[in-house]
């Protein structure tokens, strides 16, 4: 049931709990090195009102890695007899890793040896391991010191190729700035309203959030709570129906050129106002803006937004998703000058 994999030596090892059938396959799996020294710029320090936290040692542009790290422990999110399994797994850890694990914050229990409670306070979700596609939890020495914000400047992603975690910037981060992530990870949506966010954080992490979104005056929070559900629906629709939106806008003679770009700009302002940096939302928006700007032949704006889409894509997935090529030559996009086409054909 336990494996310490692989023997990375200087890069650290991860104690894993997974079924025997998975463990047997693992010696044949090769993981890439993580190059930790190159990229890690997180420094753990005390943060007022939050216990420990992490700050960036240097500036990091949007989409770029802030740090990579091997987990101390990786285990299925649900399993039978977790207490025994975790107890035995922590016994097999190397002494420095065991000390790091038991030194982590515990928001649910006063017992410093309560490993399950340490895991529930400090784990992030990862999407399974090779050969076992169920949700797993991972606990880290440094990443588990990252505090929450409802408008986080960074995001956790699991990198299957290196079997390690990665933190990427969701917006430009300055040197010395606290690096924050969202604890909602698939449980609450990024545009969740104030009472939902606060209830979750209090129940699961035992703190009252005072981040820049939650800490606004109550009348601003009330307005925000009315706006957030609308933003959520708009941005999901834009992601799903941007083609239909663009086609209707082009075909309908009653529309003017600015109609779709203006609507998308209003959604952009709403996301900025609400400080929602969630990359999927921005990828949806950027894709629609590139489509609209290409349709009216605005090369500069199309380039800018394709480059922006590439940054958000990198934050979410680690690669540009083909957006860098579009940023270079938006004229090759299928929508290029589509606005003029029906009129030329019809004349
Ligand atoms: C995963 S740990 C983060 C690191 C922790 N601050 C430490 O000292 O190790 C989660 C705990 O950090 C604290 N925390 C996280 N985000 C916070 C925030 N925005 N404000 C206050 N406390 C926060 C809460 O006590 C929470 O239970």
From TrEMBL:
Protein name: SET domain-containing protein
Pfam families on file: SET
Residues in SET domain copies: 40-184
PROSITE patterns, alphabetized: SET
Species of provenance: Russula ochroleuca
